[in-house]
Amino acid sequence: MGLEGVLAARRPYRGYEARDTRASLTMGIGNVIINLAMKGVHFALLAAVATWAPWRLAPSWTTWLAVMLLADLAYYWFHRLSHEVRVLWAAHENHHSSQHYNLSTALRQSWTTPFTVLFFWWPLALIGFSPAMILTAIAFNTLYQFWVHTELVGRIGPLERVFNTASHHRVHHGANPEYLDRNHAGILITWDKLFGTFEPERAPVRYGLTHNLDSFAPLHIAFHEWAALWRDVRRAPTWRGRLGYVFGPPGWSPDGSTLTAAQLRARAARRSVDQTPAPAVCGAQAI
Q1: pLDDT of residue 25
Q2: Do 28 and 109 meet the contact criterion of CB atoms below 8 Å apart?
Q3: pLDDT digits over 71-87, tens only?
């Protein structure tokens, strides 16, 4: 982080800002403390599910490769649904709350995702992988993603086709309409290309949320979206509205007065088409 800060100061990047960095590091420390307890819960859950597995997969280079691949797939769906389901977004949203993009942003981790992750990796235990293998694969997946949180690394050639990179993940942190809910990959960008959520980095990225926070207070960063979710649920007049606020996508509302990421992307795409100049005409032929 220190080296990145020095190098970024010499280039036209946003670099580091003391209050923002302090908030990110505080969020990261809180996440580590909570995870210390929740890893035991996660291990116990995986161990319980493993008792239902029809076989046990012994550690070998093939089973390690398989668990790394499947854990990365599980991460893709955990990450994607954390953007597409409001109650999961309430846990994940704070990771996107910084308007800076640097290695400290990677450490701006949620204080509530240690609870939501419990629902996504248990199928690997049912397949026959041991809890220790699964948690090791998750840890490796998390560590890989640290380096992609930087503006200093450009594109890295053919590896961009397969792996999640800094360029791909910058898109993921963009508030530009075309970048919303894109590039959910952990290690392999292949999943986004396979499931239709890939977007290459083209326009300059505007980092942060569609409605940015005006606070660097860690408690506000960690829980403000939970508070907003509760206010929406409490004010909803029907059970359809309450369930929609909880399980619908962020931005959903019963009357359509607010827009989801998909609706914002569609609106931006329509505007782009409307602003496209008409083709020049020579005689009766369109050129």
Answers
A1: 97
A2: yes
A3: 999 999 999 999 999 99
Instruction: Convert the chain into a string of H (helix), E (strand) and C (coil).
Output: CHHHHHHHHCCCCCCCCHHHHHHHHHHHHHHHHHHHHHHHHHHHHHHHHHCCCCCCCCCCHHHHHHHHHHHHHHHHHHHHHHHHCHHHHHHHHHHHCCCCCCHHHHCCCCCCHHHHHHHCCHHHHHHCCCHHHHHHHHHHHHHHCCCCCCCCCCCCHHHHHCECCHHHHHHHCECCHHHCCCCCCCCECHHHHHHCCCCCCCCCCCECCCCCCCCCCHHHHHHHHHHHHHHHHHHCCCHHHHHHHHHCCCCCCCCCCCCCHHHHHHHHHHHHHHCCCCCCEECCEEC
Q: How many whole angstroms from its chain centre is CA 113?
A: 11
Average pLDDT of span 16-21: 94
Evaluate whether 104 touches 1 at the Cβ level (below 8 Å). yes
pLDDT band with cut points at 50, 70 and 90 for residue 95: very high
Residue type, 53: A
Task: Say yes or no to pLDDT of 284 above 60.
Answer: no
Q: Locate 187 and state its tokens.
A: 């290690």
What integer pLDDT is reported at residue 189 of this predicted model? 98
What is the Cα–Cα distance from 111 to 92, expressed in whole angstroms? 9
Quote the tokens at residue 85: 């389901």
Summarised one tens digit per residue, pLDDT across range 157-210 is 999 999 999 999 999 999 999 999 999 999 999 999 999 999 999 999 999 999
